[in-house]
# Entry
Amino acid sequence: MLNIVILAAGMGKRMKSDLPKVLHGLAGRPMLTHVLGAARALDPARIVLVVGHGAETVKRHYERDTDLSFVLQQPQLGTGHAVQQAVPELAGGETGDDVTLVLYGDVPLVGSATLRRLLDTQASQPGAVAVLTVELADATGYGRIVRNASGSIDRVVEHKDASAEELAIREVNTGILAVPTAALKRWLGALKNDNAQGEYYLTDIIAMAVADGAPVLAAAPDHEWETLGVNSRVQQAELERIYQRTQAERQLEAGVTLADPSRFDLRGTLTCGRDVFIDVGCVFEGTVELADGVAVGPHCVLRDVRIGAGTRVAAFSHLDGASVGADARIGPYARLRPGTELADQTHVGNFVEIKNSSFDTGSKANHLSYVGDATVGARVNIGAGTITCNYDGVNKARTVIEDDAFIGSDTQLVAPVTVGKGATLGAGTTLTKDAPAGQLTLSRTRQSTVPGWQRPTKNK
Ligand code: UD1
Ligand code: CA
# Structure
């Protein structure tokens, strides 16, 4: 039975923020959410979050996650003290097979493959403790892994407690470790705080394990960056870049062309078909699916969007909660809002906003329009400056434009209203009643010319 304890009580003073550190974002989601993702992939019996600073805010953020239990650590007397608070929530411990894995809420990039290797290492010998370690060129600040003459781990010494000789050790404790639950409870009970920081160090259980004859084994992460923690905005920004670089590489490996992998930001999941092209400065959020041959121009934002094969999205377009068919042309400067469904071969041009509306095959709105709450048939042409007046200040109403209609420029469609099949609306029409199919409807005043009119001249 696997327990996972995530330490998230620290203050994060160097973030200089009112928001608890673990709620600060990485790729658009709190750091702690990333850690939870890696934790859940291991299918644990329990996930215990140790909260302290900003505890209420953290709890509220995850109140719908019924698989989490929260324990409060107040005050924060060290990592060992933090895990002690979680003990009443730990499942199992009656059999030697039960294991507790300790993670940090501010080490967000740790991957489930690395954690699985750590757990496998722990399980490789009965009663073993497994520690995730890395060798760093600069180990400043980290706990050092002290090994004996035969090379096995003896203990961990914190930077502030280390001798000059120990400070020269480059193998460091990442803080992530897997321990048999029953032994963990015993060792935690014996922790003391007689050290340079006056804290209860979780790392002291390593020497206790050795004293008890338990094997202490090291495992290495797939990537060193998985073990990096965030204590400042600078480190947060560094981890963001690492994360985005790995996401960009994943897209490249899947066959996507990125104009510049260092100017690609994914804050969710992006699934691409073959021969997709993505220009610089795009942001992808939520769930985005791009079919074969889709091209996205520079500086577009796509959030929860599905786009069909061969469609081109030109520069500076903003698509949110929309689906677009195949061989469509969107943008530049198009805005598709939630509920927009565009069929194949549709065109939406510059400064066109569409909300909660559908366009059937081949329909176009190429310039400067607002289409809201409308059902648009096939092969409809919506002229420049067309506005659906869908809101009377209280209620929203629908506009229906049937197949092959032609909407002249600068037209207002005062909903609810229907434009019949093949109807034409003259430019400048304010449509307040349905327009019959196949006929020209217009509401503008007849043009007139005043004979003999002369421009006024300046008074002498
Ligand atoms: C800890 C390790 C050190 C390791 C380093 C890796 C100990 C004693 N030392 O040191 O060996 O090299 O991490 O980054 O474990 N936390 C709590 N409650 C507390 C104290 C800490 O929840 O009372 C949380 C923090 O929010 C943080 C994590 O535990 O997420 C680590 O705490 P931190 O103070 O950064 O530990 P270090 O001193 O860096
Ligand atoms: Ca730290």
Q: What stands out?
A: The two ends are 101 Å apart (CA to CA). Residues 341 and 426 are 26 Å apart (CA to CA). Residues 2-227 form a domain with the Spore Coat Polysaccharide Biosynthesis Protein SpsA; Chain A fold (CATH 3.90.550.10). The first strand starts at residue 2 and ends at 8.
